[in-house]
Amino acid sequence: MSEPILTATNLKRHYEVKGGFMKPNAIVRALDGASFTLTPGKTLAVVGESGSGKSTLARVVTMIEAPTDGELIIGGRKIGPEGASRDRDLRAMVQIVFQDPYGSLNPRQTIGQTLMEPLLLNRPEIGAAEREKRAREMLGMVGLRPEHFERYPHMFSGGQRQRVAVARALMLEPKILVLDEPVSALDLSIQSQVLNLLMDLQERMDLAYLFISHDLSVVRHLADEVLVLYLGQPVEIGPKEQIFEHPRHPYTKALLSATPVADPLMRKERIKLKGELPSPMNKPEGCSFNPRCWRRLDICTTVEPELQGHGHCYACHNPVPEDETAAA
Amino acid sequence: MTDSASQPVPQQTFKAPPSRLREFWSSFRENRGAVIGLFVFLGFLVVALLAPVLAPYAPDAQYRDALLVPPFWQEGGSTRFLLGTDALGRDLLSRLIFGARYSFFIGLIVVTLATTCGVLLGVIAGFAPTWLDTLIMRLMDIVLSFPSLLLALVLVAILGPSLLNAMIAIAIVLQPHFVRLTRAAVLTERSKDYVTAARVAGGRKLRIMFRTVLPNCLAPIIVQAALSFSTAVLDTAALGFLGMGAQPPTPEWGTMLAESREFILRAWWVVTFPGLCILVTVLAINLMGDGLRDALDPKLKRS
């Protein structure tokens, strides 16, 4: 395995919200201590339900927001809570593809202008002709036709727009691509096209992907490693096979049991979680999953579990036994 | 074309996508009132531009032998003065034609002034930290809380009555609408992903404000500018009528109305024609503005 390109250690991002008149300000712990590494050519998938801090993680890794605590090492350079001097080199390392292809392209710019903008801003030494040449090449690489260069975003379908968004992200030849639910706004048939394009590009350009999704079947298709987030905290992290075949954390197991299987005859044990995701402003004491957990022990309500294990880690006092998970 | 059906299938397989302007025109054309408004507006524009050529007399030339002559179709009127003369023997038609110049001049200057300041302040408010945003918006609320004509009157009273001061006063009165509109549009656009993408790509704040966000906020601003044009014309006429705008003998429509007020019973034409000019211009611009809004606002667009 090659050297990691990005190392995140205990990454946190808290937001302060006004409590209202005469009330103290509350703190939303959107991301509360995530550690992981990204390796060139590999994909780390981040899964979790809505509000678990997936998109916040994306924004912190992309350096749109500075972490509140913890540190991020990207290509040997450290980014801490004081934020980064977001210079060209660092910007060129990490780029992002957003979820909604209808909002992520400037409606007043042609596709060509959109693609050339990153070069214009970051590589002023590249001439106009060279810039256009590179943009046209990139257009071809993501499977769009040359005549699309002069068109405006509203003339494209969702899948084509997402291709443009991928092309724009790749213009600076980044090492890391953050994909914030890149296919969840697309049709199923288009999803697979875009996913195949992404896998193809990863192989060709040796990219490290941080793939954020709530669609487990997509993750199973694409990921090398999986990180399960719950309320801003990683509850389980490990190689894809381990996570899907032998989930140890009850939350992961519940999440997996909720994926639909295209086999009407297969009997499924669906684990139904009770209750809602607690507010990240007011987390339960002990393990943050304990109010919804069916394997809860007394210790779970008092002591916060640490991530344990090697390679395949999970934060649970009473993990699902391995032989039981094999059946699922 | 009747024979087009018998012709072979046209060879073009790829139809070039319609340009923005074309698309705009095709949806603007559907609104008949707007097109009429546009043509009336253009007509007035031509009259204003060609005033020295079109007007039969100088606007301030007095004919002592022809005081309060009625229009030509009335008894006592002659074709020498097509729309009659006023109490000082000046040709009404010539004065109206030159008056169109003033109206357009006023409209253009006022709208340019109000739009530039308003959009600038609006964009700043939309991107500024909370305290500056609040400061700007409360200031605008204060301006908006006065009846607009009253505030314009007060400003003119301070600055002194003249056409220029009237225009400045009206621009100040109109400008808060632009600030609010721009700020609202900026706030919705600012949170969209393409702005974040421009930031990730390394766009600096000024570039994001004016190159990325502002062009996407223009549609409502253009509409507001068109509608403000008519307000500007109307308000200057009102100030002129009250003696606070253009001073006689300037052939400005509102001032002409004020001068001829006392003859309203004896000579209807001296009051009616300037009033009619104001009415038609303002109506035409408003119709055009409505059409612009329908054509530019994607929410109202039928596709």
Q: Please, could you describe this protein's structure?
A:
The complex is a heterodimer of chains A (328) and B (303). Chain A is α/β, with parallel strands linked by helices. Chain A has one domain: Rossmann fold (3-Layer(aba) Sandwich). Chain A is built from ten helices and eleven strands. In chain A, the strands form two sheets. Chain A has a seven-stranded mixed β-sheet with strand order 6-7-8-3-9-10-11, sandwiched between helices. In chain A, strands 2-1-4-5 form a four-stranded antiparallel β-sheet. In chain A, a hairpin with an 8-residue loop joins strand 1 and strand 2. The longest helix of chain A is centred in the middle third of the chain and has 18 residues. Chain A is globular and about 70 Å long. The N terminus of chain B is likely disordered. In chain B, helix 2 packs across helix 4, helix 4 packs across helix 10 and helix 7 runs antiparallel to helix 10. Chain B has 303 residues and is an all-alpha fold. The two termini of chain B are 26 Å apart. Chain B has one domain: MetI-like (MetI-like fold). The interface between A and B is medium-sized, with 27 and 18 residues.
| Biggest sheet statistics of chain B | none
Mean pLDDT of chain A: 83
Q: What is the molecular shape of chain B?
A: elongated
Q: How much of the residues of chain A is beta strand, in percent?
A: 15-25%
Please give the largest β-sheet of chain A: 7 strands, mixed
- Give the neighbour order of strands across the main sheet of chain A: 6-7-8-3-9-10-11
Mean pLDDT of chain B: 84
Overall spatial form of chain A = globular
CATH class annotation of chain B: Mainly Alpha
What is the assembly state of the chains in this entry?
heterodimer
What is the rounded distance between the termini of chain A?
A: 30 Å
CATH topology (level 3) name of chain A = Rossmann fold
Beta-strand fraction estimate of chain B: under 5%
Order of helices and strands of chain B: HHHHHHHHHHHH
User: What is the architecture of chain B at the second tier of CATH?
Assistant: Orthogonal Bundle
